[in-house]
Amino acid sequence: METFVFYLNILLDVFNIQADVFVENLLEESHKGNVDIYPLAERLTLDIICVTIMGTSVNAQNDNDCKYQKCVQTLVEICLDRAISPILANNLYYIIFFYKYIQKGNICY
């Protein structure tokens, strides 16, 4: 039981730190007028996942041009395209339309 509480405290610390950064970014954006919260929430989620699961920080919330975030976004788009399009489900068309090489380039980040 003590181990669970120890890990829960670590997770709560990570959530609180990342949430503070999120709120700061949200306040900065709110001075500009209308705020699109999706990119901010996306970067928050990426930071929390990377710190809690992989043990490393990518600092996506403070870096608008985070290369890791762009690679993940590209890979998700490729997976969705392959799932939706019957043509791309075929490996031959997947290679012909260069999705394979785009995916390989983003995985090697």
From TrEMBL:
Coiled-coil region(s): none
GO MF, one annotated term: iron ion binding
Protein name: Cytochrome P450
Membership in a protein family: Belongs to the cytochrome P450 family.
Pfam (any one): p450
Keywords associated with the record: Monooxygenase, Oxidoreductase
InterPro entries: Cyt_P450, Cyt_P450_sf
